[in-house]
């Protein structure tokens, strides 16, 4: 790749919540674009069925018709990503009523518990609102009964003594049964595996959580 064009934009007059909470709206292209003048359009689909989800609902973000021709010398990956004229990005997100696109996660972070698909961000958003929680990350770990089970990795706010039982109780009050984490790990921030830029690596966190659970730590 030597060059790439922008597909979304935010405007100088947009309010802060659009700049901070979205990646923008589809960029216009004039006569080179779609009939409505857009360069690209997005749709959000159910990761399991491939069906379009209602406006504002979360799902996998797909893009067309302006997109790559494929991955260099990787026909299998190309066939997986390019289907029916759409690029299946692997990103989770939603298109808001105002047309702005929010990216909320990655499809590879999803897991199935008892045959039901769980989106970790929903549980993370719930728990992040608790005043005793500084950081929280939900990962799926192998489980003999459920296939995968949720594990909430929680960093407590300074000076608080939140317990794993309290985390579970909060989830039971607000979530469907299959979404309630089966395990809770109370961690120090230093235990979170991160990239050099400080982003938490969930695949490594899932491995760490699995080992802690196997060792009886959750």
TrEMBL record:
SUPFAM superfamilies to which the protein is assigned, alphabetical: Acetyl-CoA synthetase-like (SSF56801)
Residue span(s) of domain AMP-binding enzyme C-terminal: 122-199
Domain of life: Bacteria
Keywords: Ligase
One Pfam family of this chain: AMP-binding_C
GO-annotated biological processes: fatty acid metabolic process
Annotated InterPro entries: AMP-bd_C, AMP-bd_C_sf, ANL_N_sf
GO MF annotation list: medium-chain fatty acid-CoA ligase activity
Disordered: region residues: 50-70
Similarity comment: family membership: Belongs to the ATP-dependent AMP-binding enzyme family.
Name of the protein in question: AMP-binding enzyme C-terminal domain-containing protein
The species this protein was found in: Streptomyces humidus
């Amino acid at each position: 790749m030597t060059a790439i064009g922008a597909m979304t934009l935010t405007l100088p007059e947009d309010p802060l919540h659009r700049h901070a909470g979205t990646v923008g709206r589809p960029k216009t292209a004039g006569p080179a674009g779609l009939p409505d003048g857009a360069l690209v359009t997005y749709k959000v689909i159910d990761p399991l069925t491939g069906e379009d989800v209602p406006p504002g609902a979360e799902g996998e973000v797909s893009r067309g018709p302006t997109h790559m021709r494929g991955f260099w010398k990787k026909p299998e990956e190309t066939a997986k990503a390019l289907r029916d004229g759409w690029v299946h990005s692997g990103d989770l997100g939603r298109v808001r009523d105002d047309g702005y696109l929010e990216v909320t996660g990655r499809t590879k972070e999803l897991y199935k518990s008892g045959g039901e698909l769980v989106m970790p961000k929903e549980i993370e958003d719930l728990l992040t609102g608790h005043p005793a929680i500084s950081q929280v990350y939900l990962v799926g770990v192998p489980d003999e009964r459920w296939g995968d089970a949720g594990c909430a990795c929680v960093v407590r706010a300074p000076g608080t003594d939140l317990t794993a039982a309290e985390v579970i109780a909060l989830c039971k009050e607000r979530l469907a049964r299959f979404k309630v984490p089966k395990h809770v790990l109370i961690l120090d921030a230093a235990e979170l595996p991160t990239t050099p830029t400080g982003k938490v690596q969930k695949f490594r966190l899932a491995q760490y959580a699995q080992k802690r659970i196997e060792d009886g730590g959750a």
